[in-house]
Specification:
By secondary structure, the chain is α/β, with parallel strands linked by helices. It has 21 helices and 33 strands.
Length: 653
């Protein structure tokens, strides 16, 4: 399956307000507990995502009555632990917060079930949970690799044991699953934790949610947990789901890197989620943070730069991934320790994070339970091939922050955020400000290049003559002996040729090129190569790279529609063919070059036809672009029009 990529433009600031989606961890715990309870529970502010969809689908397959009330609210009629459907096949995707707890709940019931997921779920270990459940009398078989899903569950033969052990150093979800299922038994059971318990805050969430449904777990620190006989879940009528603290980390980080003031609503100092302490880590790095019971606000350090940290991240296992990317914007080397659980998540997150951080120029050391990141000495932060996300939602969201680098970021398979935050990139865009762009499109000889250069100079912005890129490629093709109809060869050349615009000069492979780019032959060659899809794709990254602070003015024939569709101002500058031919004639004569007005007019008309009829990005006025006919205007009037339109746009935003 081919996944699309998403280009994030370079960002210069972050401010505004974000209303967080519901917590995934709380959402799926609440849904299962509501299903296991006696009575009816109204669940409000539930997260809408792939993971919660898998839990909802699973519960309904098991016969649990679930009614959508709209506005992220559901009414769940509990079955008291006695699922109406005694035989079913459940597909649970890559939702660990659904797979592990449902495994435990179904294993202690009297039914016959099969549980499957995506390929990655079948690589995530579950032996420690299965062994503990078997100790209680569960009857579970592995139908694939031993110790991993898929699973087949048969009616349990309960052993009546009073103590069972489970490893705590692989995943806290094993302990969570056991604890949530124990009220289904009639006896008192104590769970002993073997080894150090990781991700302790997630166990706190489990205990808090169980208490909300009427079951209090007795505990001996983090060593053992006891559920007494007679414990039963009782529906609390209404439960509100907190905003997701892990998701809050991306926006807190954006505010710390991008200035702020950025406010996150839905989670704060009263949160039961451990990842809310991500704010403490950012404070140690120098960020300024204020928090109240249900919201937090963040700003960059007073001096602007963050500091590196060395931290044990057991208490913020998911949010610690965000720190790994924030490390790119901190002075010094950041070390994140006690993160072994990353290895058994949606992907091997330590390896994935190290691989992608190296792509953007960081020096990375990875160990079994730690990662050490030193930001690049020279600014790279923009791999041409983009960031791979490994079908892991948190990889995609973390690396969106790299767009605060100088060249933006390309995220491959951005759709994976649907697992927990389907609208993430839209929300992220709503509170971040990209490097501004003025995109000026128009036909040949319309004056767009002259206008764009003067506007850029007056604003102090960078300038991109996109047409020159194609002319330069045509010239490079001649130098390298690549035919103008060799699409593959031209695309390869476009990807590696060195093109620069510096101090009013155009450089091709280390040499300044001038009048040779302005010939009619050069223009004709540019028009030919620009019609080739592979060539246009290869040059797209080069054009994006010109978008640098404080801003960019670009001119061409598809700047506003294809290259910079989010441009702050879009201008379609045109003039009559006769007026354009007259202007071109005067330009050539002033340079002492021979010219024929009739031939120039014919050439312009032919090029107009070719540019408007081409199958890829035909020349046309982009949606939202302002038409400016300069037939009766001089350059100064056209420049004034563009500047006025731009300042007017800024004043409204």
């Amino acid at each position: 399956m081919t996944h699309k990529s998403l280009y994030l433009p370079p960002l210069i600031s972050a401010q505004g307000t974000v209303q967080l989606p519901g917590s995934k961890s709380i959402s799926n715990r609440v849904l299962l507990l509501a299903a296991l309870a006696q009575g009816t529970t109204e669940v409000r502010d539930l997260l809408q995502s792939d993971d919660t969809d898998r839990m909802l689908d699973g519960l309904q397959t098991l016969g649990v009555k679930v009614l959508s009330l709209g506005d992220n609210a559901y009414r769940v009629t509990g079955c008291g632990g006695d699922f109406p459907v005694r035989g079913a096949a459940l597909f649970l995707g890559n939702a660990g917060t659904a797979f592990r707890p449902l495994t435990a709940a179904l294993a202690l019931s009297g039914g016959h079930y099969t549980l499957t997921g995506v390929a990655r779920m079948h690589e995530r270990p579950i032996r420690d949970l299965v062994d503990a459940l078997r100790g209680l009398g569960a009857n579970i078989d592995y139908t694939g690799n031993d110790g991993y899903p898929p699973l087949e569950i048969f009616p349990a033969t309960l052993s009546g044991v009073s103590r069972v052990g489970v490893r705590g150093d692989v995943s806290s979800q094993f302990l969570t699953a056991l604890l949530m299922s124990l009220p289904l038994l009639k006896s008192t059971v104590t769970v002993e934790v073997q080894g150090e318990l990781i991700s302790k805050p997630y166990i706190e969430i489990t205990l808090a949610m169980m208490a909300r449904f009427g079951v209090t777990v007795q505990r001996d620190a983090w060593r053992s947990f006891t559920v007494t006989a007679g414990s039963r879940y009782v529906a609390p009528e209404i439960v509100y789901v907190e905003g997701d603290a892990s998701s809050a980390s991306y926006f807190l980080a954006a505010g710390a890197i991008g200035g702020g003031l950025l406010r996150i609503e839905g989670v704060g100092s009263d949160s039961i989620q451990g990842d809310v302490r991500f704010a403490e880590a950012l404070s140690l790095m120098g960020a300024r943070i204020v928090h109240e019971p249900n919201w937090m606000e963040v700003q960059s350090p007073v001096g602007g730069r963050l500091n590196a940290i060395d931290m044990d991240c057991n208490h913020i296992p998911d949010a610690a991934m965000t720190l790994a990317v924030v490390a790119l914007f901190a002075d010094g080397t950041t070390t994140l320790r006690n993160i072994a659980s990353w290895r058994v998540k949606e992907t091997d997150r330590i390896h994935a994070m190290a691989t992608e951080l190296r792509k953007v120029g960081a020096t990375v050391e990875e160990g079994e339970d730690y990662i050490r990141i030193t930001p690049p000495a020279d600014t790279i932060l923009s791999p041409a091939a983009g960031i791979d996300t490994y079908d892991d939602h948190r990889m995609a969201m973390c690396f969106s922050l790299v767009a605060f680098g100088p060249q933006g970021m390309l995220i491959n398979n951005p759709q994976c955020v649907a697992k927990t935050f389907p609208d993430y990139f839209l929300v992220f865009a709503s509170v971040t400000r990209a490097v501004p762009v003025i995109a000026i499109d128009g036909p040949s000889a319309s004056g767009k290049g002259t206008v764009a250069q003067i506007v850029a100079e007056k604003l102090g912005y960078h300038y991109l003559d996109s047409g020159a890129l194609y002319r330069l490629l045509g010239l490079a093709a001649q130098r390298h002996g690549v035919a103008l109809d060799d699409e593959t060869g031209l695309a390869d050349l476009a990807g590696r040729v060195d093109i620069r615009f510096e101090k009013g000069e155009t450089w091709l492979e280390g040499r300044i090129v001038g009048d040779e780019l302005r010939t009619e032959e050069s223009g004709a060659a540019a028009s030919k190569v620009a019609s080739l899809p592979k060539v246009r794709a290869a040059l797209l990254n080069k054009q994006h790279a010109f978008r640098r602070a404080p801003g960019l003015v670009s001119d061409g024939r598809d700047m506003a529609s294809v290259v910079f569709p989010d441009a702050n101002l879009k201008i379609f500058l045109t003039a009559s063919a006769q007026a354009r031919a007259d202007r071109r004639y005067k330009q050539l004569k002033q340079k002492g070059m021979d010219a024929n007005i009739h031939a120039l007019l014919q050439d312009i008309e032919a090029r107009d036809f070719r540019d408007t009829q081409r199958s890829v990005a035909p020349l046309q006025q982009a949606v939202g672009a302002i038409m400016l006919d300069t037939t009766a205007l001089n350059i100064e009037q056209a420049v004034d029009f563009v500047l006025h339109a731009y300042h007017s746009k800024l004043s409204k935003n």
